Model the fold of this input.
Amino acid sequence: MEDILGESNEAVTILNAETGEIAFQALMTTFHFKRALMEEHFNENYMESTKFPKAKFNGKIEGYNSSVLSGPVIDIKVAGILMVHGVEKTITISAKLGLEDGKLVGISKFKVTPEDYGIKIPSLVRDKIGKEMEIIVKANYLPFGN
Done:
């Protein structure tokens, strides 16, 4: 089984400090891979990035209390809608949020199944790659206007 890692450092995330609502989105074409052919297959064959240019998540921190924004990093749950490949699914994900070295950080790692989002993996490569995609979101938050 081959690890296929695509990274984007151009995703955007917003956290509403009053309500605990959180959103992130990434343009699919900003994901880069160790081999150009992987990137081409990702964008053209699997994600159809021209037709479905963005992945988005809109959700809310469960049991939100704004004190989390000024305390140490803690485990949280975030429930919301993940849209990938034009398909929306309600999900709940584990995450961490809080201050680290005086800066507000958030991190989440969760898995999705390509078939759940209408992503077709050709049988020729299906057995060579994982059945799930792992999504890792790392965020450094700044006050609005900075």
Summary: The chain has one domain: 12-141. The two ends are 44 Å apart (CA to CA). The chain is about 10% helix and 45% strand. The longest helix spans residues 36-46.
